[in-house]
Design a protein that fits this description.
10 helices, 206 residues, 5-stranded parallel sheet, 2 domains, alpha/beta
Length: 206
């Protein structure tokens, strides 16, 4: 297992990471913020269905599923409310997934690291700063930087273009179905991240 992982990493130049649910254990925080923000509109939230989506896309998904028509100004108002709530929660409750920080520090010695996330730049920057990863990812591509967020491959293709590497020289670390779909459509191999994945990967690096 260890040799297989090492061979995989040695064949790659660029490692691309998601943020929410991949580096940071934000899923419970986002679920709580969505639930609070959308409850006033009578919209139910099942977070696994919207994990990895841009906030506005997630709001529209919940509304469409409930048969509720929202004006665009209402969508944007809910987006702002949700983002404000999750940033407040992150300021006091944000934690990294076990082993994520150690893994990042290890591979940062040998690889270029990038981040492609459907989170807003304000929220993701807050999270990265709290976890001590502010300058680790270059480029950092957020929902604000693309016309179409995940499951569109646009963000991953932009990262490849900015760094100047081909898809077969990159590797994506993702947790959500939307993110994994986007990476596959960009032609980039993936490692699916779950709660204990980083700890296992760290053992494989030894």
């Amino acid at each position: 297992m260890s040799s297989a992982l090492m061979r995989l990493l040695q064949s790659r130049q660029l490692l691309i990471f998601d943020f929410d649910g991949t580096i940071a254990d934000t899923s419970p925080l986002h679920a709580q913020a969505f639930t609070q923000a959308l409850s006033g509109k009578g919209l139910a939230v099942h977070y696994p269905d919207i994990a990895g989506l841009k906030t506005a896309d997630a709001v529209r998904f919940c509304a469409e599923r409930a048969g509720v028509m929202l004006r665009e100004d209402e969508v944007q108002s809910l987006v702002q409310a949700k983002q404000g709530l999750v940033r407040t929660l992150m300021a006091s409750n944000l934690q990294a997934l076990p082993g994520a920080g150690d893994f990042l520090q290890r591979v940062a010695r040998t690889h270029r690291l990038a981040m492609v996330t459907s989170g807003s730049r304000g929220t993701v920057s807050l999270g990265l700063n709290k976890l001590g990863h502010t300058d680790l990812f270059n480029p950092l591509i957020c929902a604000d930087d693309v016309a179409h967020a995940k499951p569109s491959p646009e963000g991953f293709l932009k990262a490849l273009d900015m760094v100047g590497v081909s898809a077969d020289r990159a590797l994506v670390f993702e947790d959500s179905a939307a993110g994994l779909t986007a990476a596959h459509q960009a032609g980039i191999a993936t490692i699916k991240i779950e709660t204990d994945t980083w700890t296992a990967l760290l053992k494989d690096l030894k």
